[in-house]
Amino acid sequence: MEQQKEVSLDRDLGLWSALALVIGTIIGAGVFVRQSAVLDDAGSTTMGLLAWFAGGLLTITAGLTIAEIASQMPETGGLYVYMERIYGKMWGFLSGWMQIIFYGPAMIASLGAYLAILLSDFFGFPSKYNVYIAIGTIVAVGILNLFSNRYGATFAIITTLCKLVPVAALIIFGLFFGNQSAFGHSLVEVHQTAGNFGVAILATLFAFDGWILVANLGGEIKNPRKLLPQAITLGILAVLVIYLLVSYGVYRSVPAEQIHKLGTSAIPYIANQAFGAVGGKILSIGIIISIVGCMNGKIMTFPRIMYAMAKRGQLPFSKTLSYLHPKSHTPIFSTIAELIIVTIMIIFSNADRLSELCIFTVYCFYVMAFVGVFLLRKRNPGQKRVFSTPLFPITPILAIGGSLFVIVSEIVSDLPGVLTSFVLVAIGIPIFYYETKRNREAFKDNSELKDQD
User: Fold this and answer.
1) Please, which pLDDT band fits residue 432 given cuts at 50, 70 and 90?
2) Predicted confidence (pLDDT) at residue 2 exceeds the cutoff of 50
3) For the chain, N or C: smaller number of CB within 10 Å?
4) Quick check: bond before 268 cis, omega within 30?
5) What is residue 9's predicted lDDT score, i.e. its pLDDT?
6) What is the share, in percent, of the chain residues with pLDDT greater than 90?
7) Picking from 43-52, 55-64, 127-136, 180-189, which range would have the lowest pLDDT averaged per residue?
8) How far, rounded to the nearest angstrom, does the alpha carbon of residue 28 sit from its chain's CA centroid?
């Protein structure tokens, strides 16, 4: 612990690095594989575009709301820190526990599993090697993040730029060479069951998720009170524009009925039609890079939550998990611990199912954070804010409404999963009290991060 008084996180990430992390962490495979699902639920191309816009708008309200909190608490840990400061240590712990033990590892494992399928198809590997490919790629990206944060940030910038190449190709082809109308085409085959606009919005919200993770790096961003709100807001806006243009391009390129029939193969089909067999390969490379970039953002950010919790003495092996390497200034043991949890999930569980279970609890904590904006303003009425949520209180109310919509939808569609997610979070309660009591002195001494000033 004495060494930790001398070693601190490097505060050297600028706006472009933060922006790349926001965009790169949001854009994974969702925009490529959810086109048919959103269209099926929306019932028509017009409503499909509106669903993507509505999902983006709700995400922007969420981002603008969190940006006000982030500007007041620019520390490593993001949502975990916000919950602790607003509602107390136990609520902060539970939000962090859920993210580092279940949600974060499950999301990384899901990305690894899907990436392994794409890599196997691309190179012709037998599917029996998929588990090893998934673990190998995750470990490789994890090793990169054991070095200085500038390497992970640079990798995020590179992968974000690379993933925009196939996105741009789809947009350009649809805009200039598509011969379909992007508006007013209904799905005749599924017209009787389609038209659930709310479900369509829900599908897009999942594609927008991940924007808040950059806040976990609050202690490593230059002038975070200013740059964090900028990165969150501009990043979400950029993704919204990209998603709308991609969807518009897809609707211009292929009739709605054909998109429905093709399902997740809609965009590969468009690439093959537009650019031939080579186009399909290029698109596959683009999706692979997109997933790797998204994975990098998550592997870079989730261990920071574990590190922040360990700094407060709230986890088993806190002394080890709060260790920063003296040269790289990165939480190497927290990163390794996250990779171990991810590997165990890939081998012994269904990571996709676990990530779905945690969506409910993530949005419960989102609602609490959004309400926290009102609480902070009430507690500090005369405080001068570096960033204030625009159109207050309308913006946070919309953010709360959007999150409640996700929560209610999850309860209606998957009550057993919701109850399971409660159990997963509740497991953390006895751990919190045990570790708090066991490390009372360390916890008291480190109740505030000393290396954030």
Assistant:
1) very high
2) no
3) C
4) no
5) 65
6) 31
7) 180-189
8) 9
User: Cα–Cα distance between 390 and 373 in angstroms, integer?
Assistant: 12
Give the model's pLDDT for residue 30: 74
Q: Two tokens at 296?
A: 């990098």
Average pLDDT, the chain: 84
Q: Are 283 and 268 a contacting pair, CB within 8 Å?
A: yes
* Residue 16 structure tokens: 């472009």
Residues 6+ apart with CB under 8 A from 28: 111, 210, 290, 291, 294, 295
Q: Which amino acid is at 242?
A: I
Domains of the chain, first to last: 3-448 (1.20.1740.10)
Work out the average pLDDT over 407-417. 86
Q: Say what the pTM is.
A: 0.84
Q: Which residues are within 8 A (CB) of 341 and not within 5 positions of it... i.e. 6 or more apart?
A: 100, 101, 105
Task: Give phi and psi for 44, each to the nearest 5.
Answer: -155, 165
pLDDT in tens, 300-346: 889 999 999 998 889 888 889 988 888 878 899 999 999 999 999 99
Q: How far is CA 57 from CA 20, 53, 62, in A?
A: 20, 6, 9
Residue 414 to residue 408: CA distance in whole angstroms: 10
Spatial CB neighbours of 392, under 8 Å, sequence gap ≥ 6: 373
DSSP lists the bridge partners of residue 221 as 13
pLDDT tier at 138, thresholds 50, 70, 90: very high
Closest CA to 346 of 111, 124, 187: 111
> Which residue in the block uniquely carries the two structure tokens 């989730």?
302
